[in-house]
Amino acid sequence: MNSFDIDGVIYIRKDLMGVRPGPDDIIITGRSFEEQLETDEMLIGAGIDNLVFYNPLPFNEKSRQSSGQHKANVLNKLLEEGHDIQIHFEDDPIQIEEIKKLCPWINIVHLDHDLTYKENMRHV
């Protein structure tokens, strides 16, 4: 099982798909739970129906650091539950740093590009 970020990984830009998760993979996004409806619709529209873990913080309270911490918390919880996560795919270096601090065991594939805006933004 692998885990994937959405923005900058699955979606490079609105018009450009990136790396697609396999059927048993999961998605851990920094997007707030408040963005779930539009995000689920977008993913389903692309034929992606994987399990998604949303950031529990409200949109206006989340940051790149807190999004990385959220992803690390989910990864650690899944590890504790016995899931074997091999790789996390991520594009944001700030989030990678947070994940590495809290999950030194995870292999991270850094999709290094400047095609995706990294700051907090609405996706509607």
Main attributes of the structure:
alpha/beta; 3 helices
* Widest β-sheet, arrangement of strands: 5-4-1-6-7
* Overall outline: globular
Give the tally of structural domains.
1
What value does the Rg take, in angstroms?
13 Å
Q: What is the SS-derived class?
A: alpha/beta
**Major beta sheet, specifics?**
5 strands, parallel
Tally of strands: 7
Could you describe the 3D structure shown?
With 124 residues, this protein is of the alpha/beta class. It has one domain. The strands form two sheets. Strands 5-4-1-6-7 form a five-stranded parallel sheet, covered by helices on one side.
Entry summary:
Helices cover 30% and strands 22% of the residues.
Layout of helices and strands, plus pairs?
Elements: E1 3-4, E2 11-13, E3 16-17, E4 26-32, H1 36-45, E5 51-55, H2 64-80, E6 87-90, H3 93-102, E7 107-110
Parallel strand pairs: 1-4, 1-6, 4-5, 6-7
Antiparallel strand pairs: 2-3
